[in-house]
């Protein structure tokens, strides 16, 4: 059984963002609660998995920071090659659009493709500095479109953006669709909050109008 490291990376960065923002906003109790809840959840998941599966999962996650572990030497070589390709090409607009890819390689058999194992390098080689700025500008726009009260959704955006530095996740269509939908989810949550808040206000006004003191003071 194999385990991808990109998912845990997104979850870890998102959790760190939520804890940090809660702490900065003075919600220390919430920060501690989130951190403890994450540990409890991890313990529950660990208990649900058998020892062999858990050992494989932990080894896979720990290997992410070990440059000598399986897969990482190849990833480092891909990064070095990617930097060299970008420096040899057109720096501002790129010159290998459609060549640095994973998805296209599966669709076009026999065509040589380049994998650089990094969303940053992929954008630089394909579209240059301008493409890189546009791509992460889109991430920033999505982040800003989310209500700042919805820190979990913003955390997911931050986690996804950070994860894309070392994975070519831009071509994972379900992942990108989910990220693009987060502002819509935020808008829906905000609308639901306003509806509930309006109902509470109307109920408060009604209860106040029915109170004995209000009836006595009424002309």
Termini distance?
A: 78 Å
Overall pLDDT level:
76
The poorly predicted ranges are 213-218
> Which class best fits the helix and strand makeup?
mainly alpha
Shape: elongated
Q: How much strand content do the residues show?
A: under 5%
Q: Which value, in Å, is the CA radius of gyration?
A: 24 Å
What features would you highlight for this structure?
9 helices; 219 residues; mainly alpha
Topology record:
Layout: H1 6-24, H2 28-48, H3 51-62, H4 72-88, H5 103-107, H6 119-145, H7 151-163, H8 173-209, H9 212-217
Helix pairs in contact: 1-2, 1-7, 4-6, 6-7, 7-8
Describe what you observe in this structure.
- The protein is 72% helix and 0% strand.
- With 219 residues, the protein is mostly helical.
- α1 runs antiparallel to α2, α1 (6-24) packs across α7 (151-163) and α7 (151-163) runs antiparallel to α8 (173-209).
- Mean pLDDT is 76; it is low at 213-218.
How would you briefly describe this protein structure?
With 219 residues, this protein is mainly α. It contains nine helices and no strands.
